[in-house]
Amino acid sequence: MVTPEQQELLHQIDSINRECLECLSVFNDSAVEDERSESLALNLLNKIDERQKLLDVLIADTAFVERAYLEQQLELTYSLKVKAKKAMAKLQALLHSGKQGQRQINVYKSIDANR
Question: Left (φ > 0), alpha (ψ -120 to 50) or beta: where does 2 sit?
Answer without folding.
Answer: beta
